[in-house]
């Protein structure tokens, strides 16, 4: 009804939308740096990504380490939920925006889960606890990739004590990012998304639109009997 007031009408709202990272000028600025005339001409993309995540440009040589870590984080196969979900969306003939959105949301959820799983890592990296978290040690199948990662970092003159603890690959990469100064969850999630989203979309868009029949929908095989769902594996296990 006219004349009534509430928190929207009476609140002390700002009269402008604040631009906290990108200043929408011509040319635009990212945390004060001219994107077109400065960043585009004098800095690598990894250095600009560093700026976006931390508000500061990296020291000399640090971008080499960052690029190595992000490249080792990059692969996302269709066996992982983000690429799987985006591929199904593509097969269902979803719009480009929908395919990308499904993949990005699933990737963000995966990243948040990974960061939560690594909560015991941060105190160890800060030197607050002595024992390395046992749950974050890698299995034998990850060991070759971790050794390659350590070797790649050595080529850019970087070492880290975490490689003495037989970590998983994601654990090793997150430790390196933490050591570089990316210590806030939002910074780490930004790098996780920036690194892995291209592979999620590559996997999805490489598949054919409208080819849902290629998706292994019936693995493991299920049969519906008497209103109850039973897999053939379950039937074999009890002899029925």
Summarize the entry for a quick read.
With 240 residues, this protein is mostly helical. The protein has helices at residues 7-10, 35-42, 45-54, 62-73, 81-91, 96-117, 121-125, 143-154, 169-180, 185-206, 232-238; strands at residues 22-23, 29-30, 33-34, 222-225, 228-231.
The averaged pLDDT comes out at 91
Shape: globular
Which parts are unreliable, with pLDDT below 50 for 5 consecutive residues or more?
none
Share of helix, binned? 40-55%
Largest sheet: 3 strands, antiparallel
- Distance, first to last CA: 68 Å
Q: What structural category do the secondary elements indicate?
A: mainly alpha
Question: What is the number of E strands?
Answer: 5
- Assembly status: single chain
Query: How much strand?
Result: 5-15%
| Radius of gyration, whole Å | 24 Å
Largest sheet strand order: 1-2-3
What is the H/E order? HEEEHHHHHHHHHEEH
Give the helix tally.
11
Describe the structure.
It is a single chain. With 240 residues, this protein is mainly alpha-helical. The protein has a domain at 60-210. The protein is 52% helix and 6% strand. The chain contains eleven helices and five strands; from the N terminus they run αβββαααααααααββα. It has helices spanning 7-10, 35-42, 45-54, 62-73, 81-91, 96-117, 121-125, 143-154, 169-180, 185-206, 232-238, and strands at residues 22-23, 29-30, 33-34, 222-225, 228-231. The protein has a three-stranded antiparallel β-sheet. Strands 4-5 form a two-stranded antiparallel ribbon. A hairpin with a 5-residue loop joins strand 1 and strand 2 (29-30). The longest helix is centred in the middle third of the chain and has 22 residues, at 96-117. The mean pLDDT is 91.
